Amino acid sequence: MSTFDYKNHPMLKTAGMVAGATTAVLAVLALKYPDRAIFDEHREGIACRPGWPLLGSLPALLANNQVMHDFLLEGFTQTDAMTVTMSAFGMPRSIATIDPRNVEHILKTNFENYAKGPKFNDATEDLLGHGIFNANGEQWKYQRKTASHIFNVKNFRDHFTDVFLQEIDYMSKYIFDPALQNNETVDFHEIMFKFTLDSFILLGFGVQLNSLATKDKVPFATSFDECQLNAFQRFVNPFSRALETASAVFRPWKMSIQQHLDVVNSFANDVIDGRRRQLANGEDHRDLLSRFMNARNENGEPLDNKELRDIVLNFVIAGRDTTAQALSWTFYNLMLHPRVEAKLLEEVHQHIEDDMDAAKLYEVIKEMKYAHAVFFEVLRLHPSVPNNQKYALNDDIYPDGTHIRKGDYVMWSPWVMARSEKVWGSDAKLFRPERWFTPEGELRRESQGQWPAFHAGPRVCLGQNLATLEALVAIVYLVKRYRFTLVPDQKITYQVSLTLPMKNGMKVFVHSR
Asked: Which residues of this UniProt protein bind heme (predicted)?
């Protein structure tokens, strides 16, 4: 019987030579790219967060994608820099900054040089399409101009404030008062999402959703949230598309992203079809949806259902998510800081009467400086969009001297900025509304570069005054009527998404004042 000659077999010899050559090549490449992804060059003059040979920061990104904001903060702390670059295999070059001068440069001074870019569009197009968040150029301009007409003082005073009061009364009637009487806990975070969804759908699209009147979750809201979570993963995980496909195949019992999108699209199309029927019957509406249905796109043509669908969903994320999250983080901080709550309650008692009409309330709230300071401080520490990015259309130089190349993705993180002593001083991590007052006792407004809570420059949030009004109306009335306390043994933290929701909600006890 012959024996197999392992040492001299030609196939094994060839395999061994290939393996040896591959190892040698990888070793050489690892020496050339010791702390960054293969083929990514070293960028002189920019602090670099060190990563693995050939892979860069990809392993760290994947390991920390559920605590991404803390991961970014750690990077700035480790490098002791305000502008940092990171290299990750399978992902484009990213340059992140927390320098207010650079942020203002990106968003305002050299606004025309920075667009959403292909990466942003690829991650969010199936959800947001070509709505105002994704649009660039003339497409963005006509959407912004069309929407701007509803954000006027008359609407704020005579209509919007009244709707907010109505929805707050629904909250009390259907949720907080029964919980108080029955000594039940409630998920404050979920309630705020229902409140802002009901309010915005009524104001923007003329639809009475009444989600506050039911304990059930809203299917549209659940699917909308899942689509946002998924979109963010596409930013930080180069394998996300493959994982979506694998999940659909190997976990058929779980709703796929496409199924969630179907729910979202069905909701938007129902809203649009309902309005078309109303218009056909001669009904006259002057809300956001009607303005767009009567408008022309950048090509001078009436908007089709796909364009209207994109607009509806973009304004829902602006009108529901950001304010609901801000309200949730506000009451979380009030529960943690009874001194602040007591001071706010004192101001509420000085200004707010139970039978105050909407027009008077609108004027009174403008005078409530401490309530504004509380809200501004919440948006500082818990910004509605914690991280954002743009795409450089041409070479540029930041105010701090950083050289940006055409095709670079530039990022800024309001969440990290809020925790940086270089930006906000030694008490940066503290919740302290008093920082928003001048020595003379007037409200302070920081530069848009330092406090980009509502973005900055030409794309500054169109609805910032609406969001502030809605939040303050809810804050002052809920503080006046109730005291909330956290249910013990729950961890309140953020969910990594396009915005800043709470990961597991926020369970509270409800007490009367």
From this structure: 461
